[in-house]
Design brief:
With 247 residues, the chain is of the alpha+beta class. Helix content is 59%, strand content 10%.
């Protein structure tokens, strides 16, 4: 046993009064003991504070890394969108200028002056692609086939049909169908997708009649559309009113 407890035991047993010096010593020892406890608590708090600081720094570093990652992703997306927009803009500008330039080039290539006379009226003409061509196909046989195609769309207009282009083995030529009204043409074009569900004519598709320059422009437009869809599968690209739109 230590001295102080023995003194307390002795004083309590023999009812001896403590001297002032002894009381001061006890108070001092008690203060020292409390001071030691406070120091221990302070040390514990310091350790906890340092640990909290380390965790805070680690969290801040993770936040910075996450922000950097998100920034890189946003930057990549913006650059990709800018490339897509640039391609679309270039193609749309080219499409707007192509018919006139192509017509001039065609005239130069054939050593002819460009004919400034207006193009024939195509506003009521329908182009039919993918319709099988038989040997020695007569106009009546062709007209009957066209009537059957249009009947799939629940339309029975009076038409005049003829094949156009050079005949090549293993490849059917397109058909120009002359209709009586512009309204009938628009109605057929609106229903054209229904042919995909047809058992007999699922490989046939319809389009408005276009000049050579417009056909070349449309081929280039579809080529660009295909490239954009392959390089940006997460986006949707469509041709609307002769231009490529994306979302």
């Amino acid at each position: 046993m230590s001295t102080i407890p023995l003194l307390k035991h002795f004083q309590h047993h023999f009812n001896v009064e403590k001297s002032p010096e002894l009381e001061l010593k006890e108070e001092r020892d008690e203060l020292l003991r409390k001071n030691v406890e406070l120091l221990k608590q302070e040390e514990k708090l310091r350790v906890e504070r340092d640990d909290l600081l380390r965790k805070t720094v680690r969290l801040q570093e993770q936040v910075i890394e996450l922000q950097d990652t998100q920034l890189h992703r946003v930057t990549d997306t913006v650059q990709k969108d800018l490339r897509s927009f640039s391609t679309v803009l270039t193609q749309n500008c080219r499409s707007a200028l192509a018919p006139k330039n192509l017509q001039k080039d065609e005239g130069k290539a054939h050593g002819k002056k460009v004919n400034s006379s207006p193009d024939p009226d195509r506003s009521k003409n329908l182009m039919v692609f993918g319709l099988p061509e038989v040997e020695a196909e007569s106009e009546s046989v062709l007209k009957c086939e066209i009537d059957n195609v249009l009947a799939e769309l629940d339309e029975k207009p009076i038409v005049v049909a003829k094949r156009v282009g050079l005949k090549r083995e293993g490849r059917e030529r397109p058909v120009i169908v002359k209709l009586q009204s512009r309204e009938m043409l628009l109605s057929l074009l609106q229903k054209a997708r229904q042919l995909k569900q047809s058992e007999s004519y699922c490989g046939v598709y319809l389009s408005r009649d276009m000049s050579l320059a417009e056909r070349a422009e449309r081929r280039e437009l579809h080529r660009t559309l295909k490239e954009l869809r392959e390089s940006n599968p997460e986006r949707q690209f469509r041709i609307r009113k002769g231009a490529i739109n994306f979302s």
